[in-house]
Write a structure and sequence with these properties.
Layout (H helix, E strand, L loop, with lengths): L5 H17 L9 E8 L4 H15 L1 E6 L4 E6 L4 E12 L6 E6 L10 E9 L2 E8 L2 E9 L6 H10 L4
């Protein structure tokens, strides 16, 4: 698996994202909070990048998976947990191959017509497709937050009590 980033996905365009999704394994169902990036399939990187930043600041920041097979979306800059879904492995609407299904139809009133599907395209990075009433409408990325990166280590050291 080639190491990809969200920036790589923002540059791919719809055709590249479809091909990447089709050729990627489902991966393991993640757990805990994941960082999200919205990806529009049109407009190229000049539109996709700024729009992704705007969505992240104002509307959607990612998802939190629990081990019981559910998730909540992280909404607004305040990280409000909302819009719950069931999570399980099943066939994709795109190619009928296994993917991780995020199914809002049975437990969400506001997102009843939405189905997300994700596959792991790089270690800790998932590419997701959003279906609305059976039509593919947009893409998103979910990334496991880096653990042990230099900024995290520095913050941990700075917050450690002295003495």
């Amino acid at each position: 698996m080639v190491a990809l980033t969200e920036k790589d996905l923002l540059k791919m365009g719809d055709g590249g994202l479809v091909e990447l999704f089709r050729t990627s394994p489902p991966g393991d169902i993640p757990h805990g909070p994941l960082e999200g990036t919205g990806i529009v399939p049109w407009g190229g990187r000049w539109v996709a990048g700024p729009l992704a930043r705007l969505v992240r600041m104002a509307l959607w920041r990612g998802k939190v998976f629990d081990r019981a097979g559910y998730l909540s979306n992280r909404m607004t800059a305040f990280d409000v947990l909302a819009i719950v879904a069931q999570v399980y492995t099943g066939p994709s609407l795109l190619d009928e191959q296994d993917c991780i299904v995020i199914d809002y139809s049975r437990i969400s009133l506001v997102a009843r017509g939405v189905r997300d599907e994700i596959r792991e395209v790089s270690p800790g990075l998932y590419l997701g497709v959003v279906w609305l009433l059976g039509a593919r409408v947009c893409w998103f990325a979910l990334r496991v937050p880096e653990i042990g990166c230099e900024s995290t280590k520095a913050e941990q050291t700075a917050n450690r009590p002295s003495g």
